[in-house]
Design goal:
- With 58 residues, this protein is of the alpha+beta class.
- The protein has one domain.
- It is built from 2 helices and 3 strands; from the N terminus they run E-E-H-H-E.
- Strands 2-1-3 form a 3-stranded antiparallel sheet, covered by helices on one side.
- The structure holds zinc ion.
Length: 58
């Protein structure tokens, strides 16, 4: 089962989506993306929580 996370679903106006086979895989992509596109060196805990909730099976 593929898991997916979309930036839009955490309230960010952005078309990015991360797909992977595990939450860890998605989180890696999301962190890289947040840094490169949103200028976040680290994801704040409250956003991290939203991100983890927004990850779902496609
Ligand atoms: Zn984004």
């Amino acid at each position: 089962m593929t898991k997916v996370l979309r930036c839009k679903e955490v309230g960010v106006d952005c078309d990015f989506e991360a797909k992977g086979n595990s939450v860890e895989d998605i989180m890696r992509q999301a962190q890289k993306h947040a840094k490169e596109k949103h200028g976040m060196d680290t994801i704040p805990p409250e956003l991290l929580e939203k991100v983890q909730k927004a990850i779902h099976d496609e």
